[in-house]
Amino acid sequence: MTISAETSLPVEFDSLLDHLDENPEDRARLLRRMLGDGPCRQLGIYPLPESFLLSVVIPVFNERNWVGELVRRVQAVPIRKEIILIDDGSTDGTRDILLALRDVHENVRVFLQPENRGKGAVLRVGFQHATGDVIVVQDADLEYDPSEYARMLQPIIENRADVVFGSRFIGESHRVLYFWHSIANRVLTTLSNMFTNLNLTDMETCYKVFRREVVQNMKLRSNRFGFEPEFTAKVARRRAKPWRVYEMPISYSGRTYEEGKKIGLKDAFSALFCIFRYWLWD
């Protein structure tokens, strides 16, 4: 048996690893045979439909330091995907980076807003252009890890859920940061739950994954971070055939204001207003 000098592994085994790296379907099939279906399901290893397409919708505002690496991490996820980047009037050179990414990657589409309007406004643009079976909302910084897409998708692929919230508070690691931010998050989530009758632990999470039809007839109005409670309220208000909602644990590497964090106290009060508005009047 020939041995590779570089890896000290049999050349045949080295070639197999290269093949599995390039063919995620074969890798998943091998792991299921080795470990069995039960352990693989627990690890988020499961077959995807051949025609499955994931739409990754990414709002961007002044993220030139992070967005290139973020897109690299999204591209590394072994799921067929389209990446929709919507720039919200950036002034720091981010737009040039987005256009360069579009020129390099065939599955990247870029939309440029003429002025800054907020996260909710640019997400509406992204949802209008999404063509995938499932949509995931991804922030343009590095706080959320795209490698967790497969685990969040699993309840939808297995037809157990229509909407999945990624929760930062039910078991995964997170960077230790602002105490009062965590208190505000829990208060807003609790108030949202009181009106929606859901039992979420993290309504304000960025990671919301859902079948595309969930937003096709949903009239979203919030322009800023009010998107989070508005989307949650409108998911919960569907009556004829209620959407099935799941939560999945996710990791979280939050950043400081010095590192570019944008949400603040004003947005907390806006979210509080939106909780009441979109449940009672809209």
Label this structure with key terms.
single chain; 282 residues; alpha/beta; Spore Coat Polysaccharide Biosynthesis Protein SpsA, Chain A; 11 helices
Major beta sheet summary: 7 strands, mixed
What do we call the CATH homologous superfamily? Answer: Spore Coat Polysaccharide Biosynthesis Protein SpsA, Chain A
CATH topology: Spore Coat Polysaccharide Biosynthesis Protein SpsA, Chain A
CATH architecture: Alpha-Beta Complex
Strand order of the largest sheet: 3-2-1-4-6-5-7
Number of domains: 1
Work out the helix count.
11
**What is the name of the CATH class?**
Alpha Beta
Q: What gross morphology would you assign?
A: globular
Structural class: alpha/beta
Distance between the termini: 70 Å
Q: How many beta strands in the DSSP annotation?
A: 7
The percent of residues in helical segments reads: 40-55%
Could you explain how this protein is built, in words?
By secondary structure, the chain is of the alpha/beta class. The protein has one domain (54-280): Spore Coat Polysaccharide Biosynthesis Protein SpsA, Chain A, CATH 3.90.550. It is 42% helix and 13% strand. It has eleven helices and seven strands. The chain has helices spanning 11-22, 24-35, 37-42, 67-76, 94-104, 119-129, 149-157, 179-196, 213-216, 227-236, 265-280; strands spanning 54-60, 81-87, 108-112, 134-137, 163-167, 208-211, 245-249. The protein has a seven-stranded mixed beta sheet with strand order 3-2-1-4-6-5-7, sandwiched between helices. Helix 8 (179-196) packs parallel to helix 10 (227-236) and helix 10 (227-236) runs parallel beside helix 11 (265-280). It is globular. The N and C termini lie far apart (70 Å). The model has no long low-confidence stretch (mean pLDDT 86).
